[in-house]
Write a structure and sequence with these properties.
The protein is α+β, with helices and mostly antiparallel strands and 331 residues long. The chain is 35% helix and 26% strand. Strand 2 and strand 3 form a beta hairpin. Helix 1 runs parallel beside helix 2, helix 2 packs across helix 3 and helix 5 packs antiparallel against helix 6. The structure holds ligand DP6.
Length: 331
Amino acid sequence: MKATAIANANIALIKYWGKRDQKLILPNNNSIAITLDGLNTITTVEFDKKYERDLFILDGLEIKEGKEFERVVNHLNLIRAMAHIKEKAKVSSKNNFPTAAGLASSASGFAALSLAASKAAGLNLDPKELSILARQGSGSATRSCLGGFVEWLKGEKPDGSDSFAVQIAPPEHWPEFRMIVTIISSAKKKISSRAGMAQTIATSPMYKVWLDTIDEDLDKMRRGILEKDFSLVGKTAEFNCLKMHATMITTNPSIIYWMPETLEIIQAVLMWREEGLECYFTIDAGSQVKIICLDNQVPEIEKRLQAIKGVKETIVCKTGAGPKLIEKHLF
Ligand code: DP6
């Protein structure tokens, strides 16, 4: 009744922004992401009669209440119902990336929790079933259930049975592809993606444009990935990110996730491109910028990023593998 899983974080190239069902976490649009090699969560889950209540330990600290705790307990309840078991569980989870990186730890977190807990409960889920389960913890976790370039299909059915992740291409399809995560010094506390997207749907006049133009972005991205057309992938990702931020900025009250350093990096990337250094940016519901490039440009981009005062750290990522079970438990 004990299992441990490791899952990588992912960053969207075509963003998931807005839900058609809050409870089942069903999106309004498909999204496409790369699973990042090396930015991961390890989670051990044990179901046992000896536990009187569910226990959740994150990076060594017990979390006893609050939204984070409730989301984990809800997820365990889903798995208990699927496996027809009643035992409470101990969950211990560890992220290997700095919280300040502004990376959706909920993506790798719910992917690792779904795999470890389902296995510990005696279930053997295939990647489709696993992504349907992970989706109900956090939307972006759907995509962390597969490696490489991954698309989350929004599906049409009200029960969510057709809203899962599929692989567009495995990690080895494009070994030169890189994402540089930059960490800036003044990362401000953010409004959660969940709250931000709900407010966008409720108040932004731009949301309609987002939905009307998303299929075009998805088509270009799929083609760009399959043909390894870096310019098409980069341009499409950057434009899609800016459209998402346009919907956020135009909510009421306005949500602006960018900090001065965010804009400084955006402008630097645009300038570098004019100078012939081809790279693009993408930004999620936060202030950290991720730079998309090919491996031969990494040294030059890193050198230039170091010259920007607000940049504290950079993490260079390749495309990574999907989640897997490991032998070494956290407890
Ligand atoms: C901007 O997956 O964190 O990063 O489903 O409510 O848990 P919930 O939201 P979450 O949203 C991620 C939004 C995004 C874009 C993306 O990852 O596609």
